[in-house]
Amino acid sequence: MTSVAPKIPLPYRILLLYFEPLAALNGALIVHFFPSYYLLGMSPTANSLSYDPASQIVYDQLAATYTLFAFNEAIVLRQTSELRVWKAMVLGILLCDLVHLYGSWNVMGTQMFVRPWLWRIEDWVNLLMLYGPAAMRLGLLFEVGFVDGKGKGKGKKS
């Protein structure tokens, strides 16, 4: 008896095949062409003098990483319906999310990081763009919302 691979539920496909690749590509363009704007948005301690053109290579390399994320999600994930491949890709992105969250916590400090009412609008955008998709990634890894080949939810007994 062959097992039928579960179909990736629509919310995950929307997030991973459309929304995130566009957001990552947008981030790559901002980081490359407007690095001082990016820096001001990511760090509450940055000011208009924080950007140093001598460090542009670091911003360009970050833009390259965002471009890779966009490519992997928009192109590579479309090449397979194999759940193991999707999970591997999502786990890698989730690890990146955790490092990103650590970086945000490190620059904001614990007192500010755990008090959303103190966040700037840029912090809200930055962190919600991490927390929401990270929660979705966990959902995919644990197959929340998946159905088996017989139309039954995962984990339900026949």
Summarize the structure.
The chain has 158 residues and is mainly alpha-helical. The chain is 66% helix and 0% strand.
Approximate strand percentage: under 5%
Poorly predicted ranges: none
Report, as a whole number of angstroms, the end-to-end distance. 17 Å
Instruction: Compute the number of helices.
Output: 6
Provide the helix percentage.
55-70%
Order of helices and strands: HHHHHH
Mean pLDDT value: 90
The strand count comes to 0
Radius of gyration: 18 Å
Q: What characterizes the major β-sheet?
A: none
> Any idea what the shape is?
globular
Structural class: mainly alpha
How would you characterize the overall build of this protein?
This protein has helices at residues 10-33, 35-42, 56-76, 83-108, 110-113, 121-141. With 158 residues, the chain is mostly helical. The longest helix is centred in the middle third of the chain and has 26 residues, at 83-108. It is globular, with a radius of gyration of 18 Å. The chain starts with 9 loop residues before the first helix and ends in a 17-residue tail after the last helix.
